[in-house]
Amino acid sequence: KMILFQIPPKSPDSASERWYSAFQADAVVLNEDIEYKVEDTSRWTQTRNVTIKVLTYSGKKKYSDFRMNYNPVWEEIRLEKASVTTPSGKVKTVTEQQINIMDASWVGGAPRYPAARTMVVSLPGVEEGSLIDLTIIRHKKNQSFFSIGGNFFRQEMEAPGHGTGNHDRFFSANPVFRYTDPILKKTIRLQIPSNLPIKIFRADQGLGLDKIWKRPLRQVITKKSKTAGESTLYEFTAEHIAPVKPEKNLPPWYSFNPVLFVSAGSWETYSEKVYRALRQAALFQPEIITMARDLTENSMDDDSRIKAIRDFVARNIKPVDIGLSELPVDQITPAARTLSDGYGNSADRAVLLYALLNAAGYNPEYILVSQSSRVADLQQAMREYPAPQWFDTVLVRVKGTMGPVYLNDTDQYAKLGTTPLAGFPGIVASSGRFETIQAPAADLIDGSETSYRIQLFENGDAFIKKKILYYGNKFAEFHKRFSEMPPEKRRRHLQEQVSSLSRSAKSEGKYTIDYNTYPGIEEFSARVNDYATQQDNYLYLKLPGLISNVDGAGRDQRTNPVYRNYFNHQSVNIEMLLPDGVDSMEVVPPKKLVFHMPRAGTISIHTGKRPHIGNQALSLRIRQKVDLDPALVLPDEYLQFLEVDRVLSHPQTGMVLLKMKE
Hints:
By secondary structure, this protein is of the alpha+beta class.
């Protein structure tokens, strides 16, 4: 064991117990030590010792078992110690029967790849008041470069906006000094060869939010360092760390909590290494030349040729959920092997796409993509402190008729140029240059437009025509859903759509589903009896389809920011033709309502009336538009955010009251 500064162990005293008991937490981390002994930039050993006291029944359920993922091709894992001390003082040690080693879910269907494993450990006799003691050792080899916290960051990207802290992540050797349970003491120790260039940064308030979220400065993590022979020893410690309040839609954990960043890599060097492996795997192969010719011989233009290649890979090469960083780069597979095997992870599918495009006469590029955040401020940690796990997806970019298009993140149902990864950062593998993934045209951005044309009659009946246009990835989802939907299920879907207007609605006319044009079109009509309620000489009704909530609004107040890592572009247009006997009307909102969301965009509702002219009936027009980019809502902005949700969801919003002539 590597000991830098000898500190005698001690049990929590009564003052410490009073401190953590005040949080009414499920458990408390009494002590956690994580040690890294680095041999060189590709090999190191990490040792994690942790002692946890379970305080509640919920804590018992949370900490009774845990799992650890690894791949023996470049990592060895050993459970050195796992014991539970009951409140009575009895010590129970984990036996071999309580440790299960399972294959990753993809192993059976992808035998070409080194099999990943999951170690599942069931702790014996955990109850309220128990002490859990663990020592876990990992030996890593053949890594691209030394960094800490990469697996933790990847799990952040896989489960964004969590409200519970994604408990399994905290059983890994992670670089954050704050959990959803209080921590009495946590220490991270590093033994680094003195000749190894390394970047180390301790961020007491996290990294990425300091420009927009001003909080009182307070030192949380203390640092010690010294030289020992040919190594430099570092020790970072934090004590008495209050837990994060569980809330939905939280920002990335590293952005607002004490965290340590350590990296010996650079994106330029790493991307060059990956690029060499990708390029080597796509070198001249006769099978690829033949396949590219067969796929494109009947295509008349660039877009149809590129689409033919994309669709072939989407239909014939099964995706395997293995990120680029989960295997050594020497495991990247030649294109011909991926073609013959019929499956591949993101990197191998990209190699096949690249090779086919190259054989067809194009000049494609590899783009490494990080799903860290679409919010620029939250990309700072990724950009400044490299870890391979930040970039787990490989796309291929090629120039089509409308400009550069990205492949390998859509299937045959998507319009060429659509990319669900729009807004995320990418690295051009050949140069190491950062860029932002973007669709080549505005109408390829995810979105929808819904329109209602309502003919209202004096008796309150109505004839309603609804039309939806689908753009971007919403079109791809629409196309896939309905092209694979059997007729009976399609009939049921129409019934559900009609019933959403009113229980008394009856379908009338043709039901149109068109995914052979762009944007996709869904259209139907219905006749509704008593759509408006009659009372004396008044008619009143609730307009259909208005967007009535803002995702992320919930509790009356927030401690931490609300995080929305997606675009929201949609509009609703309503035209209601009124009967001749209308004397006057009131609408909520009466004219114009615009909500400006800080750093995100706007939500607006515009109401207009068109007078009765000639054969044109008096009509009411309402347009609601949502244009929101990925953004954070700070705690002091939350009440304004909540007010927007309250207005949109208020029962009176969208109400129409008509006074009829006597």
